[in-house]
Amino acid sequence: xxxxxxxxxxxxxxxxxxxxxxxxxxxxxxxxxxxxxxxxxxxxxxxxxxxxxxxxxxxxxxxxxxxxxxxxxxxxxxxxxxxxxxxxxxxxxxxxxxxxxxxxxxxxxxxxxxxxxxxxxxxxxxxxxxxxxxxxxxxxxxxxxxxxxxxxxxxxxxxxxxxxxxxxxxxxxxxxxxxxxxxxxxxxxxxxxxxxxxxxxxxxxxxxxxxxxxxxxxxxxxxxxxxxxxxxxxxxxxxxxxxxxxxxxxxxxxxxxxxxxxxxxxxxxxxxxxxxxxxxxxxxxxxxxxxxxx
Length: 294
Hints:
The protein is α/β, with parallel strands linked by helices. The protein has 13 helices and 10 strands.
């Protein structure tokens, strides 16, 4: 069985999607439509902007979404997923690729999500940190012992987690995690505490937008970040998509469940190859490849 997966924030690079734009009339048409929907020429920033341009949340999230989704659209009949999943932002790409959301609605929601997250980041200084070489339970225990907001945000693969919280909380946690034997506990260059309770204002804002958007039954099950379980129910998909902003991304569990349910081949669509690497760390024997252009 073939599983398609879609990357999240951090996978962006200057030049992303340009091959697609230049080689496919459909891709060109969709990129132009995206420029109109967003109200600025995002393709200029994607194809020939600077790293700094691409790092702005309002650009990063739509850019990654567009690269992933347009590639799936251009593949046409060659895109035949038995199951899909996306990492954080990538869940929106997965939903559009699998037909649960229209291209236009998906892009509008991703843009609204990016703006809402940016606002939440500005309300309270917060950050994230990568933790390597400790088991999940130990990281959870240390986070819960701190009197600040600190939670596990991403279960990326065994021995690699990301924590999220207040700046002070993350600093304390990094010290404690190193003392407990973490190989690394390193603050990330992000503007806020994604997938933590500090994203509550963004969650409320996104909930309104999601509830006002029509969702269809996808062509195959989507394994969602919040539960790591498959669903094709539009109401359940919406509920999990809202919860995702303040809940952890259970990527390790998602990949394990997809394999248990019969996935034999994973294809990552979009910029970078981060997910391909994580999948191989979850199960070194599984076939995983990344695809960025035709």
